[in-house]
Amino acid sequence: MDTTDPLAANIPAPTAARPLLGLTILAVEDSRFACEAMRLLCLRSGARIRRANCMRSARRHFRVYRPTIVVVDLGLPDGNGTDLIAELNSAMPRVEGILAISGDGHLKDAALAAGADAFLEKPIASLGLFQETILGMLPMERRPKGLRQIDEMAIAPDRLAYRDDMAHIADVLDDHHSEQTLDYVAQFLGGVARLANDTALAEAAGALAAKRASGETAASETARIAGLIQHRLAEKVAI
User: What is the mean pLDDT of residues 44-62?
Assistant: First the structure.
């Protein structure tokens, strides 16, 4: 296996303005809206980004090249992100950093136990927090030299990507309402809705998650989410 990014003929040195210059980040994230936020964070930090929307796609990436950092969402459509983290942690050679992300902060301990170097709770909108977390996983020689001002800029992803996420969840709910499906819907929407400042949908996702955690039926919560999703799909998005 080629352990380098084929696009990186020469690795440029990071700078104060672009502290992640020279890094390649693979985002294993099924939300297009969250991945658009990650793309903006990487773009403004100097890092390259690639995306895998599921564990299967991520494993295909690893057969071709080894990124510097892997960002793994814990709620993926084809499995638990902690399983992928455990694989990455035991691989030789190991990637330089594994960052676990989730809209559920209670999953932090499980992610770190699986081998993640750091954990961030979604939504991740702060450029400074993202940069400091990534840099904290790198050896000193891979970090920019000298003093650096922390950038407190908040990023704003394209709303069209949010609509794509709504269409994705509408399709998931149309297919079937198994217990695993509802857990996935609640986790997916929890982080995405907060990133979009969609309070009503975030609260509905939280209510669904609470019902699932208590073992109660969640028919009314599921119906409410389905209605909110359809309402958002009906809205026109300015281009």
Answer: 95
| Predicted TM-score (pTM) above 0.90 | no
Q: Looking at domain 24-142, which of 2.60.40.10, 3.40.50.2300, 3.40.309.10, 2.60.40.4070 is its CATH number?
A: 3.40.50.2300
CA distances from 43 to 19, 51, 59, 155 (A): 11, 14, 24, 11
pLDDT tens, 148-187? 666 667 788 988 999 999 999 999 999 877 888 899 999 9
Name the 3-class secondary structure at 71. strand
Contact 89, 111 (CB under 8 A): no
Q: Using an 8 Å Cβ cutoff, are 5 and 67 in contact? A: yes
Distance, in Å, from the CA atom of 106 to the CA atom of 116, rounded to the nearest integer, reads 15
For residue 140, report the phi and psi dihedrals to the nearest 5 degrees.
-55, -35
* Cα angle value 48/15/8 (rounded, 5°): 35
Domain locations in the chain as residue ranges: 24-142, 159-234
Decide if pLDDT at 6 tops 60: no
